[in-house]
Structure formats: structure tokens, C-alpha cells
What does this fold into?
Amino acid sequence: MGQQPNGGGSGSPMMTFVMLGAMVLIFWLFILRPQQKKQKERQRLLDSVKKGDKVVTIGGEYGTVIGVEEKTLLIQIADNVKVKYDRSAVSTILREGEDNKPIN
It folds into this structure.
């Protein structure tokens, strides 16, 4: 009386484990993996900044890198106006001679 007939239970524990594994795999493929790729690409961009590069900061300021340190950049945003930024403040590096086309 207290037992349910076959097919009326919650299913086999193995099937539940397989479904859980499939959900974790899908989560990793569609969410975690692309985010990790994006992070690595951003880190390569920040590591590639060098003196003379034209950059755009996350605040939208355009400038030219005139000094590079391990964690900071000295960026000239106007004549006689130099600002020190953290490397992570760089949004894009612009191509030489083209102020509106970022490097991919």
C-alpha cells in the first residue's frame, strides 16, 4: 500500500544524474566559456597597450598614451593635460590615423 507502482516514482537516480550533468554542460557551454574567452581577450588588449597608442577610456575620453607602468597609464587628453589612469580604464585602442575605428 505504501509503495508506488513502477513508473509512478521519481525515476531512476542515474537518469537524474545524467540530466543534472547535461544542464551543467549546457550552462558551461553557453555562459561560462564565452565569458572566459571575453576576459582573456580583454586582458590581451590591456597587456598590449604601449606608448604612442591612441586609446578611448571607459569614460569616453580620447587620448594618447605617453607613459606606461605596470598597473597605470599616463594619457595625454589635450595639450598640457596629462591624466594617470588604471590600465583597466582603457576601453579600446584606436588604429593609427583613424580616430573612430577600434582594433579588433
